[in-house]
Specification:
mainly beta, Tachylectin-2, Chain A, 6-stranded antiparallel beta sheet, 5-stranded antiparallel beta sheet, 3 helices, about 5% helix, globular
């Protein structure tokens, strides 16, 4: 297997703690000591001998219950996957688009399985899709998009996903006992004022237990990072219904903002489920470089990825944040596609003694990068 090492960070720079910033000190204080960077997950190597591991195909057919006709549901693009390790296998739950309808494609979620994390078998039909159900008004005909999955302590799978009706993206949730059959629960925010606000990308704070990412309560609540302009927080008692964290004025509280002049100059969006570690809560996130305050050195519109560390005792408290991206488009399959210059990190799994990081490339295909334990 040929692995291509990410070129952004050399070993001396990693040892020096390059790319991390503590919270700014107040005026007149002594400069803060160089921050510890041991919390950052680096060393991922793109598996170029296998990438892209999944792409569009015109051989998967499915009878759409709304159109009443057969569609090639993964014909256009395949990207933005979640990951689950189950029974010595690694599953990808991925977004796939057809070429039909007003938006030149409806999104559905398919599933594929692998015994090595590199070569996948695809199941023929999607596992989550718009249907003639109570959620059709929010899921049709844009579709269902961009899943993240964690396990609950009682062994259920909890999936956050985007429902898109063509006007707004809304953060929805579903649950399953076995990955192939899902119960839709609708908006994570129920009927609150946030249901009809543009919302997506729910990354639930979880701890690795073996190969599983298991949601864990902090101070008696589950926590979820979400959003796609700035990153916000929500809490829950049951992983299904969530309450957005607000400030003292009753307005939505920003936990991680976009930063003019940086790689994330235009927006930030959570990546895989947030990882509870000994150092704190590690959030891998995606950022877009765009607009008049974009950072030099990256093409306009580039999606790359950074990392932030939050206090495990108070998930609202940002401890450190990388100044520079650790993952960016550089391969042909990342640079050219439905949307050029995109790596969108979404799936993280510990499998067979290694970390596997799965991501969408140019909104067209799926690739993987690997690092040791």
């Amino acid at each position: 297997m040929k692995l291509i090492h990410l070129s952004l960070f050399s070993l001396p720079l990693i040892l020096a703690g390059f790319g991390c910033r503590q919270q700014p000190s107040g005026a007149g204080q002594q400069p803060a000591p160089r921050p510890d960077s041991s919390w950052v997950m680096l060393g991922f190597e793109k598996a170029d001998a296998y990438n892209p591991v999944l792409g569009p195909v015109d051989t998967l057919r499915f009878r759409c219950p709304i159109r009443g006709t057969e569609v090639k549901w993964a014909e256009k693009d395949v990207f933005n996957p979640a990951t689950v390790v189950r029974n010595d296998s690694l599953f990808l739950i991925y977004r796939a688009e057809d070429v039909v309808g007003r938006f030149a494609g409806t999104s559905r979620l398919g599933i594929a399985v692998s015994t090595d994390g590199l070569v996948f078998y695809r199941y023929p039909e999607p596992i989550l899709y718009p249907d003639e159900d109570s959620l059709k008004r929010w899921e049709w005909e844009g579709g269902v998009e961009d899943p993240r999955i964690v396990e609950s302590e009682d062994g259920r799978y909890i999936m956050t996903y985007t429902a898109y009706d063509g006007d707004k993206a809304r953060l929805f949730v579903a649950s399953s006992d076995g990955l192939f059959h899902w119960r839709k629960h609708g908006s994570v925010f129920g009927d609150s004022k946030y249901r009809d606000m543009w919302s997506k990308s729910g990354a639930i704070a979880s701890r690795r237990k073996g190969g599983s990412l298991v949601a864990e309560k902090i101070n008696g609540k589950y926590w979820m990072y979400w959003g796609d302009k700035n990153i916000h927080l929500a809490t829950s008692d049951d992983l299904i219904r969530w309450q957005a964290v607000e400030d003292e004025k009753g307005e939505l509280k920003t936990i991680l903002p976009f930063r003019p002049g940086y790689f994330d100059s235009d927006l930030v969006e959570p990546g895989p489920p947030a990882l509870i570690t000994d150092a704190g809560i590690l959030l891998i996130y995606n950022g877009r470089n765009f607009g008049p305050a974009m950072a030099p050195g990256l093409p306009e519109g580039t999606y790359s990825a950074g990392q932030a560390l939050f206090d495990a005792g108070n998930p609202q408290n940002l401890i450190q944040r990388q100044e520079h991206h650790f993952f960016h488009p550089e391969k042909p399959y990342e640079i050219t596609g439905q949307v050029n210059n995109v790596v969108f990190l979404e799936g993280l799994a510990f499998f067979k003694g290694k970390w596997f990081l799965y991501y969408g490339t140019a909104d067209s295909r799926i690739a993987v990068a690997v690092r040791g334990a």
